[in-house]
UniProtKB/TrEMBL annotation, chain A:
UniProt-listed Gene3D superfamilies: Carboxypeptidase-like, regulatory domain, TonB-dependent receptor, beta-barrel domain, TonB-dependent receptor, plug domain
Location in the cell: Cell outer membrane
Lineage: Bacteria, Pseudomonadati, Bacteroidota, Cytophagia, Cytophagales
Pfam families for the chain: CarbopepD_reg_2 (PF13715), Plug (PF07715), TonB_dep_Rec_b-barrel (PF00593)
Keywords: Cell outer membrane, Membrane, Receptor, Signal, TonB box, Transmembrane, Transmembrane beta strand, Transport
All copies of domain TonB-dependent receptor plug, residue ranges: 120-235
Topological type in the membrane: Multi-pass membrane protein
Keyword Signal: yes
Domain of life, per lineage: Bacteria
UniProt protein name: TonB-dependent receptor
Signal sequence region: 1-26
UniProtKB/TrEMBL annotation, chain B:
Record's keyword terms, sorted: Cell outer membrane, Membrane, Signal
Top-level taxon: Bacteria
Protein name stated in the entry: RagB/SusD family nutrient uptake outer membrane protein
Cellular compartments annotated: Cell outer membrane
Family stated for the protein in its record: Belongs to the SusD family.
Signal peptide (from-to): 1-24
Domain RagB/SusD: residue ranges: 382-533
Residue span, SusD-like N-terminal domain: 112-246
InterPro entries: SusD-like_N, SusD_RagB_dom, TPR-like_helical_dom_sf
Entries under Pfam families matching the protein: SusD-like_3, SusD_RagB
Gene3D superfamilies: 1.25.40.390, SusD-like (1.10.3780.10), Tetratricopeptide repeat domain (1.25.40.10)
Amino acid sequence: MRIKLHNLYSLLFAMMLYILPAHSWAQERAVSGTVLDETGSPLPGVSVVVKGTTKGAATDFDGRFQLLLNNGEDVLTISYIGYTSKDITVGNQTSLSISLSPDADQLEEVVVIGYGSVKKDDLTGSVQSVTAADFNQGAITSPQELVNGKMPGVQIVNGGGSPGAAATIRIRGGSSLSASNDPLIIIDGVPVSNEGVAGMRNPLNTINPNDIETFTVLKDASATAIYGSRASAGVIIITTKKGSKGGLQINYAGNVSVSTPTQFVDVLDADKYREVLVAQKPAVEGLMGDASTNWQEEIYQNAISTDHNVSVAGNIADVLPVRASIGYNNSEGVLRGDNLQRTTATLNLNPKLFDDHLKVDASVKFSNIQNTFANQGAIGAAAAMDPTQPIKNENGEYFSWTNPDGSPINIAPANPVALLNQRTDVSAGNRVIANAQLDYKFHFLPELRANLNVATDRIMSEGETVTSPEAMFNVESLGKGLRTEYTSEKSNDLLDFYLQYAKEFGESRFDIMGGYSYQHFYTENTGREFLGDEAERGVYVDRYENYLVSFFGRANYSLKDRYMVTVTLRNDGSSRFAPENRWGLFPSAALAWNIKKEGFLAGSETISALKFRAGYGVTGQQDIFDNYPYFGKYTRGNEFATYTFVDPATGQIMTPMVDPNTGRNVPYLSLRPEAYNKDLKWEEATTYNVGIDYGFYDDRITGSLEAYYKQNTDLLNTVDIPVGSNFNNRVISNIGSMEARGVEFSINTKLVNNGDLFWDLGFNVAVQDNQITQLTQVESETYLGVETGDIAGGTGNRVQIHTVGHPAYSFFVYEQVYDNEGNPIENMFVDRNEDGKINDFDKYHFNQSAPQVLMGINTSVSYKNWEFSASGRANFGNAVYNNMAALNGHYNDFETSGQFLGNINANALETNFNTEILLSDYYVQDASFFRMDNIMVGYNVKSLFGDSINARVYGTVNNAFVISNYEGIDPEIFGGIDNSFYPRPRTFMLGVNVSF
Amino acid sequence: MKSYIKNMSRAAMLIAAMATTSCVGDLDVTPIDPDVNTVDKALNSPEAMAQALSKVYAGFAVTGNVGPAGSGDVAGVDEGESSYWRLWFVAQEFPTDEAVNGWGDKDLPTLSQVSWTADNSFTRAFYYRSLYQVTLANEFIRQAAAYGTEYADTDRQVGEARFLRALAYYHALDMFGNKLPNIEEDKGVGAWLPQPWGQSERGPELFDFIESELMAAIEVLPAAAEAFVGQANKDAAKMTLAKLYLNHAVYRGQEDVAYYQKGKTMVDEVIANGSFDLMDADDVAGTDAYSPYEFNFLADNHTSNEIIFAISQDGNYSRTYGGTTFIVNAATGANKDNMGGGAWYGTRTTKALVNLFEADDARALWFTDGHNLEITDQSLFTEGYAVTKFKNMKRDGSKGDNASSEFVDTDVPVYRLADAYLMAAELDIRINGSVSATSLDMVNELRTRAGVGAVTSIDLDFILDERARELYWEAHRRTDLIRFGKFTGGDYVWPLKGNSLPDGGSISAHYELMPIPPSDLNANPNLSQNAGY
């Protein structure tokens, strides 16, 4: 076989020679050689080009090549992806042995993109990558925290201070109204579902941040369109660490951290409370207690967390690169009782077989999560509970507001400490992501590769909530206790297959890839609850699935390494749409001009890199939270939503059927026809992107500048439909359009680089905005828009709106009138339409929740063995509705009915409001901020106990400080409504890394 | 080696080929949830048809598919607020002298002030809820023709659906007038735009449809004696017809005595058929803790023979934050233990209602401890008496069956015999100018039960006041005030009317009709807004 293949190669070689330009035949001499890698193994497919010409060859299966050289042609350029290129002077030699060494900057140079990777120089789209060395440091439990602030236009907002809390990621802002704005996340080639999992705080935190090697964000459509229908919100590609060359190396990384709450909601303390209540509500002062309780101090704690990771990486017997790791994280939350325990294990095998023709990347990632959720109801309760009451009364029972008959007043604030202690909420979950990617380079045609990726992602979780029979905050379970159980099971099975053909022709290089992808998502959720000893109830089983089938292709062409063109096309079929609307075609095209390689810049000392990029693409969106939206269905209701007939003779409720979920006789369970939209189709986003990548002074200054414009049409949008034409008054439809635009800039500098002292400084900024351009089928001048942004206070009150001509989620409120001293006048608003009445038509669009400017800054300094780094972020042009002040910042909140008392927000002392004023622009406050995310100081101990052991000791402070004018607890709240927010703690961490 | 590679490439190709061909077919999905089915699989048995019909009923009693909340029928409103009877109660009582609510819920305060605007959440929600009921009934009638032809109960079930549709349309007509969209039965689901019933706010089109539907339903509905409590019956249809006729001058825009005569015929038939009996001293058992009048509003009011038609409520099987759960709990404060439900500190009444009662009237059911009669601040629950008419207590003084007592068992008394008595007397006067001896006796039966003196002569003003005394909080008041010309203008005022305290002020005539929601006007260009909005 080997021989025959050789013959084939010889034949091909001969053909290649034949097609080479005729003039090169003059006065030639033959030179042959072998190219070896750093271990001495032959390297096939290496490009061997005669310097200054287009003439060249590729090494064969055994790393061998042969060339005929003309006179004067004396230097060969040997290059191979991932290896440092070499120029070899041939001289008199006729047989060469050349060994290439891996490029130290390999990971920076090669960037993973959809279905493959590409040299950074050849990139045509907007792709940004952060590797392990540049990750944020500190007590990080969720992967997305690793890169927060590192990339312009990538906004990552965690849901609060709970360990492992879910984070919202927005790439270039949101661009969909009702459909998902979450980017597609791909972990080692496996696109994973963004859907939350019952009992898991955040599906992404099942991945141990210590195992992550790179975090790549594809931003513009020319980069993302290869993922077609799921790419509108951007794509994040995460790759995990793999086995390296060389011997086995063991690494231990561990840390211990202490988190401490930094800020409480500004409410009255007991002394102030007594003073203000007596002045304002003397009629109820008798309800006050004798205690002085700071409820917020009672519910929060200093939280201690630890993290341990051991990994083994290397190359077993030089044939099996392997990395295995085990990690354990135990994180407490600052809310008492909040705890996350995560155990992870990973195994990556990356052997190359059959003389490197078959590359196998097999990986298994396992994680076990044990959650103890603290009752977050305590957060709001602590801000609303009367501070003059004791935690427990003299009988040793938790204090609770009661009716004269001793039953709890369920509209009164609940005892925050009881909320924490009398309800347990635990869950456990396992997740396995396993995949095997086989990349086969054809023996008879090494330029052709076949790539097969089979993967499965399985999540199983279960949880239980138990409310104590003594809990006064649950009227129903009082004296009985309530236990709720749930399970969740999800699977995601993937098969990708593609063929890729890459070829160089003189100064031209092209590669063509075409493939197919099949993915199946399945979910089953079940639940039940038990009230005391009663039979189970509220039993449910929900099951749903969806499929995506896709065909995709990409062609890259590069001329002289200067002019690059990329074209991609994806045809996606989604089971969410009717056959006639099912398939969506998503094209993209991009070109790049590497100006630096032009003659006029080639010699420039100043400019070390300069590339211009432009791209266009169409992406889609089909993630609408409903798996069967296009055809009619009937859904069976549960046993608590029935209509009862009573037999007049017996007075008994008729129970003529058996509930399949419980086996009990019940009244007829309703069968409800569900709304559907048979015309539903893809939402489409068209994006235009231009960018410049630059480098100065030998790349001591690098960065890029980008601008984009994005137009979303046929928005998947839940809209009001003509009543009577469907089984709901709002149905998901393709109505509406919006546009987004922005500019992003990044600069990374190596300010000092002299042997002992290194100082890097990086900065990025994104300016972005969006605007809704259509919302309804019928154009209407008087239509205000779709109200959104639910707040606490009353029922159905909302402070935001989607209106044509304004950004999505604009605040929509009344304009407050102020007195001469600048104090707001209670219940007095500007009559903006001057009709003499204050009603909805006087509200106006005031500010927005999404930041208009996002900045990130980071710096690192190392001097000899010492290192220091810091990173921070700033947002501008974002506002937050201070719901805590609006809800509790008035004197009537002291008492509601003369039966119980509540605390008030200290803001009441400024406004002197008596009544609840919810919809005033007074509470929509500028929430621009700068946050110092982390500061790190480290010391490297090199060559400990001889050469074999290296160690690093470091300390970090996360969330060191925040600068903002915002008056509430935290200016960084996704969605812009500050209501009972779990405060982000400040975390001090001490860590150590040892490798040997 | 070679064969190995060959096999491997073959295997890869095979996998790829198989995947490509077979898996495109996977895109054709059908539901795998045991609770979800396509219509052909869902409606495959008589039991399933009964379940589908029970949804049409359930739409009047609960708010969605999961009790008490979690899978609501109506979008754009808090699910608890989307309850049919909660919304109907809010619209019929809050803008009148009978009830005031002070919660800060969006758009709720303006209802008591009679100062709502076009996009009021509650009028919008009732528009969608009532017309959802019409759409549901249409679907049942269509599917019964497709899947129910062989079943014995189908004709009766279709009659029930037609009654329920007419009831929802009747309430919608009362609130929104004659320009409501005509949701044609045979149109089904799709991108079509309903036409308005009529071009003018007051007119005959929708009125005539409701009338003919009720006439048809009467033919197939069971007699009250044969029906379950909570089930539609002939007398329920007749009472609805009688209401339609009694108010015809408002709905059609002109008075025609013939309609009063038709109405009298209907009321007389209901009274005469003997199925119903006023709860009085004869019905009292030794264990009863309440007066006979109150039997109609208690957790076990399914035992009351006085109720002609009730919407069933059950604190266990029909959990909702609407219906009587809302009526009872929102009216409850410090008197929680005597009310049997939860305490939501919301709704109370005005002095205008309280002052209609003579001192010893047993129907005046107030809780006054800690409450003032005068209202100076809408948001304070303790201003205005709390109303204890509806309770989640059983006749024997025990609480309703739901363990938390949060969900109320008390059925909604849609029509009571007492109402029929008062309608008979009113129709007499409207037809003949005076009340018949029979009707006068019936009115005095009510007064006697209440422990107040009999009257010898009555006029329309007396009828309106007596209706308030007998029927307050039973969701008739706004309709009654409009029929008597006292709802708008300044002739009759009550606290908060026109957003004026303590006594109330005049309001514009356009408030007699509620606004068509702008959201539907935007979605359907065939529709137009009622005047004044």
